[in-house]
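To the wet lab folks,

You asked to see what we're planning to order before we commit. Fair enough. Below is the target structure as tokens, and below that is the sequence we designed to fit it. If anything looks off to you, flag it before the synthesis order goes out.
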């Protein structure tokens, strides 16, 4: 991407501080740092990650994203993800709802399946635009491999803190199995004169286990527990933003928190610029059953027993079904009314509250 001087994140908008976790320390088993990671993952479910060593891979992915988004719309639409609940491929702006009323999202993105990237030049799920293929080996695969390694290192920390036998979470995230794991490059257009901030991506919890996110402009917001006003997460240069998603929250009986978040027009002057972000989503293999791992861990069994609604940890769904249901019911083409949006929901803790919040 051309080097562009972006306006700084303003200091007069409501912002939520995240803990900064040092990946190198976590990798080396530093007790204080793993304590802080645990605190971040159980209290808010979001944290900054520094020293993750993936900065070069991240920049190359932004280049791949920019090359892809520059393709003619007719070319991009050949790879659209469709309305059947598959996430891999291109998603045009306005293809998803952002809320119950059916307001449209403003982001386009290109999602590449982990399975497809690792199997390249063979295909597991689908074909991709030529701009993706050209960089599959040099850019997409290295980014995905590094992201997986980072997420699995963090997941092993959670595995042990949750009192699970070694490798319990890893066994549900096998690299050889088909899964919804994917990379995503997201582009949101500048505000273009609009006076109101718009929801680019509606309030949601992430569908899978762990998300490894990179952005440069503000716009990401979280609704911290017990708070009714959305707070921006300020991007910090060189830092990733990591968060827990639904499936890890379910496996852990709610000990790990999958927090509501959304993306709106970047604040102030930043809103006049294109906003680019990049995520790698780790998700369990499709056939993993989503329920609290109470038989494998007394800590999780106790957490479920203490929950006011233990039934919510027995979804009766596999990861594949969970993922498909959430994606399919966000698609505007599938919308019949507010019930479609509701059917797309995951573990959102206070959805009613979220839909009442209007402050940007
Ligand atoms: O663009 C961002 O900052 C966040 C994106 C996000 O939440 C998502 O794609 O699930
Ligand atoms: Fe998200």
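Sequence we intend to order:
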């Amino acid at each position: 991407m051309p080097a562009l001087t972006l306006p700084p994140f303003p200091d007069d908008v409501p912002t939520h501080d995240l803990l900064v976790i040092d990946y190198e320390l976590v990798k080396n088993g530093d007790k204080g740092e793993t304590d802080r990671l645990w605190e971040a993952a159980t209290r808010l479910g979001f944290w900054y990650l520094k020293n993750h060593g993936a900065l070069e891979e991240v920049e190359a992915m932004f280049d791949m994203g920019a090359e892809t988004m520059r393709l003619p719309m007719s070319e991009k639409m050949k790879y659209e993800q469709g309305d059947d609940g598959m996430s891999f491929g291109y998603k045009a702006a306005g293809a998803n709802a952002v809320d119950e009323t059916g307001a449209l999202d403003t982001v386009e993105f290109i999602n590449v399946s982990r399975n497809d990237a690792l199997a390249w030049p063979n295909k597991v799920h689908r074909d991709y635009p030529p701009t993706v293929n050209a960089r599959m080996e040099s850019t997409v695969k290295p980014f995905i491999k590094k992201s997986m390694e980072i997420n699995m290192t963090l997941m092993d920390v959670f595995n042990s803190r949750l009192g699970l036998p070694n490798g319990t979470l890893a066994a549900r995230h096998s690299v050889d199995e088909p899964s919804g794991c994917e990379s995503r490059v997201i582009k949101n257009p500048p505000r273009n004169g609009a006076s109101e901030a718009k929801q680019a991506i509606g309030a949601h919890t992430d569908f899978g286990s762990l998300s490894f996110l990179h952005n440069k402009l503000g716009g990401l917001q979280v609704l911290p527990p017990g708070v009714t006003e959305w707070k921006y997460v300020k991007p910090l240069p060189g830092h990733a933003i990591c968060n827990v998603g639904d499936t890890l929250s379910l496996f852990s009986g709610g000990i790990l928190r999958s927090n509501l978040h959304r993306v709106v027009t970047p604040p102030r002057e930043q809103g006049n610029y294109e906003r680019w972000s990049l995520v790698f989503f780790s998700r369990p293999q499709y056939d993993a059953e989503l329920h609290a791992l109470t038989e494998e861990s007394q800590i999780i069994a106790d957490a479920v027993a203490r929950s006011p609604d233990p039934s919510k940890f027995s979804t009766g769904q596999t990861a594949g079904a969970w993922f498909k249901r959430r994606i399919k019911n966000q698609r505007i083409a599938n919308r019949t009314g507010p019930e479609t949006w509701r059917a797309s929901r995951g573990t959102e803790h206070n959805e009613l509250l979220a839909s009442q919040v209007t402050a940007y």
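Structural context that might help your review: Residues 204, 206, 261 surround fe (ii) ion (ligand 2) (CB under 6 Å). The domain at 20-356 is CATH 2.60.120.330 (Jelly Rolls).

Thanks,
Computational group
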